[in-house]
Amino acid sequence: MGQTIQISFLITHFNRPSDLALCIDAIKKIPISNYEIVVSDDGSTIENIERIQSYEIDQIVLAPFNQGLAANINKGLKACRGKYIIYCQEDFVLDVEINTVLPECFELLENKKVDMIRFTSNFYFKKIIPLTLTISRIPKFSFRNFLYNYYQYSDHPFITKKSFYVKYGYYQEETSGRYGETEYAIRILKSNAKIGITNQFMAFSIAGSQSVLANESNKKQNRKLINKSLLKIARAFRLYLECALYENSKRGLKTYKNFRKN
């Protein structure tokens, strides 16, 4: 009988093979063993698929056409054979020192102190609850985190157990990227899932990488000056409203547009 795989590194990819190569190279530099690399591709061009098939990957999961990030993560998750899943989009690289925090991640996940541990964040959570020297838990609600309470979950790199999705559900498919991420973030916020975060970031975005979400709305960017502080407050109240209106069974947002739906 073969050895059980401990970690599945799941990388979602869509037409960014150069970024993917950097992401894979960073994983291979981490001094660990007993892992697999799974790339879930979301309908990239034939040329890019042929290119990534030459990479050192354990599994490549292909889609018949572009189905969106949520569907891409879902099919990748179902292909993973590891007990733990480290998720990373292709435009991020993991820090080679991530191996120093993994034992604590495993222990906290096994002891159910947390259900998921993030390796980075775009936002600074003013209130966190220390669990170990290197990992803290984000409280479900804190007035100190008032503007960012709903950002406990993010599609940025994280580690969890495969069983997480059996308990809390997979991602809502047929959704545009930001809509799907926001819907799942609210779903997790309203659940009893406990989200942790490393005290020092262990994942970093690749400089110069162009986000595939930037153009999904087909709307021109408004370049007028906007008061960023007021925008953050308005966004926070909008998302608290979404939390209040959210229904687990129906899974949908009331004030956000899903650009994959007509």
Helices and strands, with pairings:
Blueprint: E1 7-13, H1 17-28, E2 35-41, H2 46-52, E3 59-61, H3 69-79, E4 84-89, E5 92-94, H4 102-110, E6 116-118, E7 129-130, E8 135-138, E9 158-161, H5 164-168, H6 177-189, E10 195-198, E11 203-205, H7 228-245
Parallel strand pairs: 1-2, 1-4, 2-3, 6-10
Antiparallel strand pairs: 4-9, 5-11, 6-9, 7-8, 8-10
Overview in brief:
With 262 residues, this protein is an alpha/beta fold. The chain contains seven helices and eleven strands. The longest helix has 18 residues, at 228-245.
Question: Please, could you describe this protein's structure?
Answer:
This is Glycosyltransferase 2-like domain-containing protein. It comes from Flavobacterium palustre. Residues 8-136 form the Glycosyltransferase 2-like domain. The protein contains 7 helices and 11 strands. With 262 residues, the protein is α/β, with parallel strands linked by helices. The protein has a 9-stranded mixed sheet, sandwiched between helices. Strands 5-11 form a two-stranded antiparallel ribbon. The longest helix has 18 residues, at 228-245.
Please name the defining characteristics of this protein.
9-stranded mixed beta sheet, globular, two-stranded antiparallel sheet, 262 residues, 7 helices, 11 strands, 18% strand, alpha/beta, Spore Coat Polysaccharide Biosynthesis Protein SpsA, Chain A
Widest sheet, order of strands = 3-2-1-4-9-6-10-8-7
CATH topology, anyone?
A: Spore Coat Polysaccharide Biosynthesis Protein SpsA, Chain A
| CATH homologous superfamily designation | Spore Coat Polysaccharide Biosynthesis Protein SpsA, Chain A
Quickly count the domains: 1
Spatial gap, N to C terminus? 50 Å
The whole-angstrom Rg is 18 Å
Helix content: 25-40%
Strand content: 15-25%
Low-confidence stretches: none
> Which whole number gives the mean pLDDT?
93
Spell out the helices and strands N to C.
Answer: EHEHEHEEHEEEEHHEEH
Characterize the main sheet: 9 strands, mixed
**What is the CATH architecture assignment?**
Alpha-Beta Complex
Care to count the β-strands?
11
Contiguous helical run count: 7
Oligomer: single chain
The CATH class label is: Alpha Beta
Structural class: alpha/beta
- Shape, principal axes of CA atoms: globular
